[in-house]
Amino acid sequence: MPSKEHHRIFRIGWLRAAVLGANDGIVSTASLIAGVAAAHPSHSAILAAGLAGLVAGSLSMAAGEYVSVRSQADTEAADLQLEVRSLRGNPVQELDELTGIYVARGLAPDLAREVARQLMRHDALDAHARDELGISAYHRARPIQAAVASAGSFAAGAALPLLVSALAPTTHLIVSVGVASVACLGVLGAVAARAGGAPMGRASVRVMLLGALAVGVTAGVGSLFGVAV
């Protein structure tokens, strides 16, 4: 018997939020620390800024993801309610609509009609949600899952540059935080690509370059203006 397929698309809901949160946690916190350090404050002020960035960023990611995905979930629910009303009021029209979808996908008209009829008899709403609206159980919006994944991954990502800034001497703090953060971004990009089935090298290099640019630009701004940014 052939081996069981393991499709990665089913991970997309939590994987997107987790990768975004961890990446943002590393980049934003490392950039914040680098910008503050470039303005030459005390070591304790740098750590306080980094910790504040971790807490504020985690809460912001959770709130942002929840609101965004909640809006998607509300839209899906409204469309499903509209479909329920259509199925109750115009079942023949809905059958024709589903038949047309299957004909467009390559089925013969008679076969498409029979398939549509049987699927609607089994679960009409599921058939129309999946084939007409593109909504399936695997891809339904999950606001709480997205919020928790984003907040937790942001905090985990932000903890790295914060830990490095706590251990590194002030004279080498920017370089230490920058190097450690870029290296961690490379690992994160490779892991995320592996989980999603994408080329690891390209993903790793992409996030490393973007992260290094963010840290460098923020450090430059902090050094230029002599203020915490």
TrEMBL record:
Chief localisation class: membrane
Protein name per its UniProtKB record: VIT family protein
Gene Ontology molecular function, alphabetical: manganese ion transmembrane transporter activity
Origin species: Bordetella genomosp. 13
Any one annotated GO CC term: endomembrane system
The organism's place on the tree of life at top rank: Bacteria
Pfam families, per database record: VIT1
Transmembrane segments: 12-39, 45-63, 146-167, 173-195, 207-228
Keyword Transmembrane (UniProt): yes
Keyword entries, A-Z: Membrane, Transmembrane, Transmembrane helix
Coiled coil: none
Topology within the bilayer: Multi-pass membrane protein
